[in-house]
Amino acid sequence: MIEGFTALYIFMLAAFTGYEVIARVPVILHTPLMSGSNFIHGIVLVGAMVALGHAGTGLERAIGFFGVLLASMNAVGGYVVTERMLDMFKSSKGGR
Amino acid sequence: MGAVIQISYFLAAALFILGLKRMSSPVTARDGIVWAGAGMLVATVVTFFWHGMSNYLLMILAIAVGSSVAWISGKRVAMTTMPQMIALYNGMGGGAAAAIAAIELLRGTDGHSDATIGLAVVGGLIGTVSFSGSLIAFAKLQGLIKRSIVFPLQQPFNLAILGAAVVIGALLPFQESGGILVFVFFALVLAFGVLMTLPIGGADMPVVISLYNALTGLAVGLEGFVLNNAAMIIAGTVVGAAGSLLTQLMARAMNRSIASVLFGAFGHAPAAEIAGEGGALKPIDADDAGIMMAYSSKVVVVPGYGMAVAQAQHKIWELAELLEERGVRVKFAIHPVAGRMPGHMNVLLAEAGVSYDKIYDLDEINPEFPTVDVALVIGANDVVNPVARTNPQSPIYGMPILNTDQAKNVLVIKRGQGRGFSGIENALFGKSHTRMLYGDAQNMVSKLIQAVKRL
């Protein structure tokens, strides 16, 4: 489906997108942003699910289970931590 | 169903990018994470309907256990330990990318082109380094590993391990089925991640965590190519690029190159050379310090990691409000790398309710210091060390600092007489207009509050 050069183009455009989105960010948002991007690579969960879903041998299943476990921790933990951080920004703005 | 999955992945990728964009402005940041979260939910749900899948029971069990552990730990931790939690969850993501690579490599080369296997190897390597490296970063910040571990010939030794892993990794595409070499490969890379992170000092940890964050993103993107998964490719690559830029910004704020963070252990400079600058440390008691602040017209508070450790942010804001009632102008000055991450102090002060317009960054506040009556340094050390301006021998020479030494008076709240995280003496503490308040930051600020109240 995604072959050779098409893959390369996607890679290049996505890299530029990431760079541009971050390029002009105030220092105060660096930590929340790091946390937010940490959440976003939790999408690895999707890949880990597919890998476990197609696992045949016991060993593959064990590794796949481990992968899904770790990936869901990345996604959920990343979300909770980022949300908590950003919540405080909201309350400090609205409070005054 | 295939089309629905593809459309959902497309939607998820779009939501991630929009979410990240919204997170880059304080006004829309709160929505940003919700948008990205919606994308993640959609992508995860449709993946259950991927064709030809089995092992659903295991999958649901893994998700249930992983999610609840992360949910509870993420909700429970104190704001001050956020940096290490980010490191921990980031390591999990790297580990997951490595697990995908491991399964693909164990399954062997059938059905994959050499290029795909090559990408799986590279992604597996990066993901694994991020996994074991992040766990060590977590352990260091959490205080489980207290010192930087340095031994002779460390760099050549680490490089040899990495070299061996790369050689074995290069052999993997030519194996019929992965077998034992795959295990050797991952074992070597795991060891490399640990060894590479152990010598890095605590002051450099933010840069390292950010770097591992970018690496995990890249690993996820690479495994996305292996699995032909556009959502992973786009989200992983965006994070890889954004994370790399963020890492550079942080390193620049500390006046360090990424290479010197990774390969030049901070503590190497002989401490004796720098010691002995300035005079003896002069303590002051809380009552005198309180009076000094209450009768000044401008006070600048400089928080550092010590404030985070002592959870003193609420007390400090109480003190600031008290001083403002008396007509003192109070500002907060935040160094880009104060604490363990850029923005660490902003997050804590925001938690305490300090409004934005009172918080100033380095460039804004530095010209003001000569007109400041009292600079109150709370648990900050290296970021106010004038040695960074004056002594070319110092390992932090050239790092932009908050020029608190130019204030008319400097009060320093400090737990003990020890050094900062970089392990060097602070020349500010010995200056003639500096007074030391020894004690836990929260305790000491409470005493200052009482002192001001009594006036």
Short description:
The complex is a heterodimer of chains A (96) and B (455). Chain A is built from four helices and no strands.
| Main structural class of chain B | alpha/beta
**How many strands, what sense, and barrel or not for the largest sheet of chain B?**
6 strands, parallel
Overall radius of gyration of chain B: 25 Å
With helices defined by DSSP (H or I, 4 residues minimum), what is the helix count of chain A? 4
**Helix fraction bin of chain A:** over 70%
Poorly predicted regions of chain B: 266-277
Which oligomeric form is depicted?
heterodimer
General description of the model:
The complex is a heterodimer of chains A (96) and B (455). In chain A, 81% of the residues lie in helices and 0% in strands. Chain A has helices at 4-23, 30-40, 44-53, 58-94. In chain A, helix 2 (30-40) packs antiparallel against helix 4 (58-94) and helix 3 packs antiparallel against helix 4 (58-94). Chain B has 455 residues and is of the alpha/beta class. In chain B, strands 3-2-1-4-5-6 form a 6-stranded parallel β-sheet. Chain B is elongated, with a radius of gyration of 25 Å. At the A-B interface, helix 1, helix 2, helix 3 and helix 4 of A face helix 1, helix 2, helix 3, helix 4 and helix 8 of B.
Helix and strand arrangement:
The complex is a heterodimer of chains A (96) and B (455).
Chain A lengths: L3 H20 L6 H11 L3 H10 L4 H37 L2
Helix pairs in contact in A: 2-4, 3-4
Chain B lengths: L1 H22 L5 H19 L8 H21 L5 H26 L6 H28 L12 H18 L8 H18 L7 H23 L2 H24 L4 H6 L7 H4 L11 H9 L3 E6 L1 H6 L2 H13 L3 E6 L9 H9 L6 E3 H4 L8 E5 L8 H4 L18 E6 L19 E5 L2 H14 L1
Parallel strand pairs in B: 1-2, 1-4, 2-3, 4-5, 5-6
